[in-house]
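INPUT
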Amino acid sequence: MNASLNTPSVTEEAQNKTMKHNCEHRAECMKIIQAILDDEATDAEKDHFRENMDKCIPCIEAYRLEKCIKDSLSLKIQKKPCPQSILDTIITKINS
Amino acid sequence: MSVAMSETLTNNGYTDDLRYEVFNREFMPHIDSMYNFAFRLTMDEDDANDLVQDTYLKAFRFISSFEQGTNAKAWLFRILKNSFINDYRKKSKEPSKVDYQEVETTYNSEEASDTTYTVDLRADAVQELIGDEVANALNALPVDFRTVIILCDIEGFTYEEMAKILDIPIGTVRSRLHRARNLLKEKLKSYASSMGYDS
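OUTPUT
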């Protein structure tokens, strides 16, 4: 994915010319992007996303960044198992 | 629902055997998630141990108010969050701890200026970060902002479940999450810069 982004094809370069390089709805789009990634978007937000996301470079970059952060949080952060001693204490106490 | 609720509150329908059965079947499978939530809230292993124990003992004591068939994990997280606020946060002398109301006021007043807010951070730089760096960035956030990110992005709760766990409206969940993510991006940016990932 990185390779294709670093070396855009002729088609991609042609498409870039018709794409927006500034987003005039930045704040609203950021909220929509997060709602989409959280699977919490309304139908109107989904429609807006479908219609605009492939035309706006700042929104595409923002989507990639937000998704990357969300994935990093869920996949990279270590999850520790609860210590057995806590389990034992809880079971002992509820049985006493 | 009100009929079921009143039955639950008056008779509860919980025999002793059922209390243990529900506890083991519905509550125990979430103990690792609860432990990690407790640790990320308190940032201290001993406090996390105590908080998880207290929460599970409270859950057992008040099991009759758990409506079977509803989301046990959200119910447990709510008890843990309330125990943290009532019992642990009070004890803490950490100056960075921020009052919920204070946080709400702060970011609501900043929301207007927040709308044009962007952090110059690239996805590629975030991809370079290892788990500990992401965890450190998360841990550097004030606890109220840290909490919404943990609930949403690590534990996968819906906005509606988060609203119930935190006792706030869904609109507030959305805006607090949005603000929390902007703050997290600032922290991630610092880490990425210090590691040279964003050059």
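end of record. The mean pLDDT of chain A is 85.
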